[in-house]
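testing teh design pipeline on a random one, pls ignore if ur not involved
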């Protein structure tokens, strides 16, 4: 948004709301502190008329009560106050309701005038980002209560964008360093090499001031916007943030911008093919925010959703006073102590970063939990790794040291739950931990819930499932043992030797135990910001006439889209919908959807090429929300981020749309990118290893032996063998991390599967057919034993794996003791089945060894 646009928008807000004067002529554009209380209490007590109906009562409970105090909106936005719009009128809540509905959008809370007003800097009582999040949450809670627990999303026609962008095309970074980059490189190496170079005294990434122009070019690309150069971080850092200017900041910023403009101007503009069947464009922030309704929150007393995206505060949006606002500590930035994550989240890097709430507001937890003796803590977390020991503290309610009321942490593959009661010590020990063999904690996004009651003790849930780990410590009381003077800590505490590393996307505290079904319900609702992007296809070639009426458009392809992380977007579940309430499905064909971004089809993430749907009366549902229309594909895909949610422009192209011809043959597959190189220039090994679960599942599929097989006595064998060896099997696919201990564990597991196969006549018959007998193996070693093993275990034609012939040769060499010193020497010991001592048991032992040699080889375990 330009400066002049911001001024016009601000002026519109002034007319809508008026001002609480900031003094000194500052007016609405200033961000003064909240007005002084003048000696009166900031905790206003309402004594006016009762709410006239349920709508006003819901408004009062969720919105009015949170904003009426002196230190928020109450001293201005009441009749007789200095603000225009008495939406928290102190004399009559009904008058306040009538004013509030004029400045609140219950269908799209974030678009409410009161939200955009505060987001623009008007009288925020904490950080601007935190105020925006809090106001939005109050309106969402109001809307959810009015809708019986969930905000209903309504689709409305968006503002369509030209897929070619505002400039009629897009510029993209060339794959190799272009000559025009020399000017930018010269500015960077002249003025930024003191920090942004690996050889600097205090090197700071990215190394865009490297002497090597190719290294510089690769590092600088995220900092330059080729299509709107004034948005380039290199320029903004100098102009607005005065970051290490070398003389005059305005002049230095202009020098940088001139170099960027010269560089960008030399890159040809990329224009889309006009013959394609293409939708209108959208950026992520055009999308309608999805409802977060449907979670079970009846007992929720604290909620942190990390919607702020910037600043040093995280808001408690539960609506239960007092808010426990978390303050962030440490240095913010990539690779530093903490970093905001796109799509609502916070990343802690296991250093000095943490978030904490003060003891006064944190006392809410004691006041609402201790007497009842039960609670639940719910978190969506993604551990950075499974090597954290300690335990690393994810969330605690304590004194910032070793004393705590409760704490949830991670120790390698385990989650640990500490709870202070009359039967545990001041640190909440002994802890309840998930079982080592289950390896519940994984380096991926997980829903973790811990519950405690004085009847059932502690329980842990991961991804909706109770882990089954029994609490050996008897339940005790809380009220007499919990301290009232503790604060909450996230990511570690002030004295923690092992701060936690990972991403947290939601934290919630409930003052009751969540049931199994309630935990599963909240897990199924997911987490994070979701938007519905509506791509207009009404004017695309082949769209039926019923999609248009004059200038009105009705037909859309809608995607649920979110920011997967700081580097990618998640597109999910495309559906077709018509906003015409009288729409009648007429056999509209939609085939092969391709996602475009910034003037070209995305090089990866094209999962919807497989779409081949016909809009029909059977599958199409009337309405104008996410449950309406016709689902086209029940899958998600990842599309790489380029510039960010404000500017990345998406569009859709189709192989076929309606009456159009099929253009499948027009699309040329994107080239497969070259594999990455290490820093020393040596090519990485383009291969990896199957992980522990995958290895066992693969062995079970290839041999036909169930993972939960029994031995002759009926005892369970394979699953117990797998559980015992699981932590010795590969945990990461990295080729260079593979150890001798991994191969030993693989060999042991392969022998277990092969032994079960060879010693079960029914399994042998299923695998080998009629030749699956010891006599048949002795009669034709090659044809009846080795060839079936290799045929079923080894894939031919893969350049990264040994050929079937080479594996056969190796197995036969072992069987025949080629070169001496080899065992089992099947052919020399048992040829023809007549040699003494060559009985069926001996034959099956040797067959087991050959089977395990093939099954446990890199031909199976490498990928």
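output:
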């Amino acid at each position: 948004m330009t400066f002049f646009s911001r001024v016009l928008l601000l002026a519109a807000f002034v007319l809508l709301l008026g001002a609480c004067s900031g003094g000194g002529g500052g007016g609405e554009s200033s961000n003064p502190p909240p007005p002084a209380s003048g000696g009166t209490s900031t905790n206003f007590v309402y004594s006016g008329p009762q709410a006239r109906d349920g709508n006003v009562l819901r408004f009062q409970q969720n919105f009015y009560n949170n904003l009426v105090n002196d230190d928020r909106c109450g001293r201005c936005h009441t009749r007789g106050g200095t603000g225009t719009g008495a939406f928290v009128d102190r004399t009559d809540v009904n008058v306040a309701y009538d004013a509030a509905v004029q400045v609140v959008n219950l269908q799209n809370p974030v678009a409410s005038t009161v939200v955009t007003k505060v987001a623009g800097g008007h009288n925020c009582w904490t950080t601007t980002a935190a105020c925006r999040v809090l106001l939005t949450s109050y309106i969402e809670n109001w809307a959810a209560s009015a809708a019986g627990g969930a905000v209903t999303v309504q689709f409305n026609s968006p503002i369509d964008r030209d897929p070619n962008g505002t400039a009629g095309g897009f510029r993209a970074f060339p794959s190799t360093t272009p000559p025009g980059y020399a000017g930018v490189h010269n500015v960077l190496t002249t003025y930024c090499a003191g920090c942004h170079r690996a050889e600097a005294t205090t090197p700071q990434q990215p190394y865009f001031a490297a002497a090597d122009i190719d290294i510089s070019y690769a590092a600088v690309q995220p900092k330059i916007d080729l299509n709107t150069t004034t948005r380039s971080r290199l320029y903004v850092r100098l102009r607005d943030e005065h970051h290490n200017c070398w003389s005059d900041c305005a002049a230095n910023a202009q020098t940088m911008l001139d170099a960027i403009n010269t560089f960008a101007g030399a890159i040809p503009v990329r224009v889309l093919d006009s013959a394609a069947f293409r939708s209108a464009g959208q950026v992520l922030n055009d999308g309608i925010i999805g409802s977060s309704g449907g979670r079970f929150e009846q007992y929720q007393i604290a909620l942190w959703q990390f919607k702020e995206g910037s600043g040093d505060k995280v808001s408690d949006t539960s609506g239960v006073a007092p808010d426990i606002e978390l303050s962030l500590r440490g240095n913010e930035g990539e690779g530093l102590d903490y970093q905001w994550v796109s799509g609502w989240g916070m990343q802690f890097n296991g250093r000095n970063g943490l978030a904490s709430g003060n003891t006064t507001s944190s006392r809410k937890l004691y006041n609402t939990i201790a007497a009842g003796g039960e609670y639940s803590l719910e978190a969506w977390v993604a551990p950075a790794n499974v090597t954290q020991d300690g335990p690393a503290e994810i969330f605690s309610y304590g004194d910032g040291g070793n004393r705590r009321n409760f704490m949830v942490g991670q120790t390698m593959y385990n989650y640990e739950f500490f709870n202070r009661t009359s039967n545990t010590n001041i640190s909440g020990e002994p802890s309840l931990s998930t079982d080592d063999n289950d390896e519940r904690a994984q380096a991926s996004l997980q829903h973790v819930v811990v519950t405690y009651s004085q009847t059932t003790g502690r329980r842990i849930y991961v991804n909706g499932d109770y882990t089954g780990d029994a609490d050996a410590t008897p339940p005790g009381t809380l009220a007499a043992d919990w301290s009232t003077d503790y604060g909450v800590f996230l990511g570690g505490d002030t004295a923690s030797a092992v701060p936690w590393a990972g991403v947290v996307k939601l934290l919630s505290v409930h003052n009751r135990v969540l049931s199994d079904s309630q935990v599963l319900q909240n897990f199924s609702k997911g987490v994070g910001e979701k938007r519905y992007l509506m791509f207009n296809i009404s004017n695309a070639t082949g769209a039926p006439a019923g999609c248009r009426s004059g200038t009105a458009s009705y037909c859309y392809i809608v995607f649920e889209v979110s920011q997967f992380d700081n580097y990618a977007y998640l597109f999910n579940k495309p559906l077709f919908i018509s906003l015409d309430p009288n729409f009648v499905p007429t056999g509209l064909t939609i085939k092969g959807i391709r996602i475009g971004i910034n003037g070209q089809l995305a090089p990866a993430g094209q999962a919807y090429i497989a779409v081949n749907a016909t809009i029909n009366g059977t599958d199409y549902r009337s309405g104008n929300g996410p449950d309406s229309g016709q689902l086209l594909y029940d899958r998600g895909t990842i599309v790489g981020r380029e510039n960010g949610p404000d500017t990345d422009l998406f569009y859709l192209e189709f192989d076929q749309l309606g009456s159009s011809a099929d253009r499948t043959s027009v699309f040329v597959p994107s080239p497969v990118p070259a594999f990455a190189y290490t820093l020393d220039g040596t090519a990485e090994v383009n291969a990896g290893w199957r992980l522990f679960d995958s290895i066992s599942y693969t062995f079970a599929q290839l041999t036909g032996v169930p993972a939960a097989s029994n031995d002759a006595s009926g005892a369970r064998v394979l699953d117990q063998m797998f559980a015992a060896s699981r932590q010795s099997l590969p945990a990461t696919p990295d080729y260079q991390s593979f150890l001798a201990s991994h191969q030993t564990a693989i060999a042991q597991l392969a022998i277990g599967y092969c032994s079960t196969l060879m010693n079960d006549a029914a399994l042998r018959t299923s695998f080998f057919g009629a030749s699956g007998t010891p006599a048949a193996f002795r009669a034709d070693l090659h044809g009846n034993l080795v060839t079936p093993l290799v045929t079923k275990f080894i894939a031919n034609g893969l350049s990264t794996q040994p050929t079937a012939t080479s594996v056969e040769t190796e197995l036969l060499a072992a069987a025949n003791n080629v070169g001496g010193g080899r065992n089992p020497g099947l052919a020399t010991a048992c040829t023809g089945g007549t040699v003494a001592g060559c009985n069926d048991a001996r034959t099956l032992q040797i067959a087991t060894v050959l089977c395990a040699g093939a099954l446990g080889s890199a031909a199976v375990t490498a990928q």
